[in-house]
Amino acid sequence: MAEFPPSQPNEPLTLKKWIVGLAFAISAQALFGTTFAFNKLVINQGVDPILLGFNRMGLVALCFLPLYWLQKKKIVWKRKTWRQAALVGGIYCTLGMILEYVGTKFTTASNASLIISTEAVFSIFLSVIILKERLNAPNIAGGMGAVIGVFLVVLEDLHGMEFRLGGALFGDFMVLASVISWGLYTIFSKRVLDDSDPIQAMLFVSLFSFASFGVINAATDRLPGIWEMSWKSWLVTIYLGAGCSGLGHFLYYNALKCLPASIVCMTLTLLPVFGVIFSIFLLQETLTVAKTMGTAVIIAGVAFAVWPRNHQPPPVLPEPIG
Fold it and tell me: Measured between alpha carbons, how far is residue 289 from residues 44, 145, 153, 188 in Å?
């Protein structure tokens, strides 16, 4: 997945720096983990999932725009980089959010968070296929474990093998399909970041996604739904854009300035934990035995797949904007 600037290798990692960096990383994962429950809250209030994507990407762009303006030096992109950014934002990010949000409408927020957490493993396998990166035994073992965990999570929805539009199993598979799109988003984001910095990349990727969502919402006559949203829906949407995406990425980047990339990468295993916790407290969702087992297996699988070995730090995984 895309590489962000890690802490300088020559800088000593003091106890204070370690504590501050870890606090940044865990806080970022906590914010990212609330995404699924709050997405469900907005959708449950009658907001169309695709319209939610449009509103959120607009807010994300507004968050990164002033940070981009404040940069002392702006990198001039080549045409190739602009095309890649358009592909990442306009297609992979937009498609990932549509599949994830529509799927979340029909399944539970906790299921969505657990399934999405396997994106780290899928990106490793996609890196092998697209970027020709090497795959080792722990990657394979961890990936297989994460897949088994997903099966345990959706086990109850598989009961009777009833697959119908609008059913819980349909929602699970929509979210699972979004994982592929998010994996492609991550892989090609790496190429964009090769020629830019995180703030610049996030701004223009979010603008391309916002534009893509705008075209889809306008073509399907969803834009008037903006005026029908309640103030509660708007408050939650603002939190999703400014809090989860804006502040979350700010904390994540600062964690990378304080800590080695390998340590920050490991905190990604906390995402499903926070996702399930907030789903239980905010939406009163229940955690069954099968889902508990699935949660543990997914976390263990992802952790085993990305754990740094032979003193080689794993690639840093950028959180999907959505």
Answer: 26, 17, 9, 37
Q: Which of 67, 46, 15, 78 lies closest to 258, judged by CA?
A: 15
Q: Are 33 and 274 in contact (CB under 8 A)?
A: yes
Residue bearing tokens 């075209």? 215
| Cα four-point dihedral sign 151, 153, 154, 160 | positive
CB neighbours (10 Å) of residue 247? 16
Residue-wise pLDDT tens digits, 147-198: 787 777 776 666 654 556 667 888 888 998 998 898 888 778 877 877 778 8
The owner of tokens 């997903």 is 150
What's the mean pLDDT when you consider all of the chain?
A: 82
d(CA 209, CA 54): 8
Segment 78-102, tens digit of pLDDT: 899 999 999 999 999 999 999 999 9
Q: Which residues contact 191 (CB under 8 A, 6 or more apart)?
A: 81, 84
- Centre a 10 Å sphere on the Cβ of residue 228 and count the other Cβ atoms it contains: 11
Sequence-distant (6+) residues with CB within 8 A of 90 are 208, 209, 211, 212
Taking alpha carbons only, the member of 222, 196, 191, 313 closest to residue 262 is 313
d(CA 107, CA 168): 5
Q: If you write DSSP's letter for every residue of 114-125 in order, what string do you get?
A: HHHTTHHHHHHH
The CA distance from 9 to 18, in Å, is 14
Q: Which two tokens stand for residue 7?
A: 């802490």
Query: Burial, 178: exposed, middle or buried (Cβ in 10 Å; 0-12, 13-18, 19+)?
Result: buried
Largest CA distance in the chain: 59
Alpha helices, H only, 162-267: 168-193, 198-219, 231-238, 248-258, 261-266
Per-residue confidence (pLDDT) for residue 194, from 0 to 100: 78
Q: Residue 46 and residue 181: Cα distance in Å, rounded?
A: 25
Tokens linked to 278? 């907030």
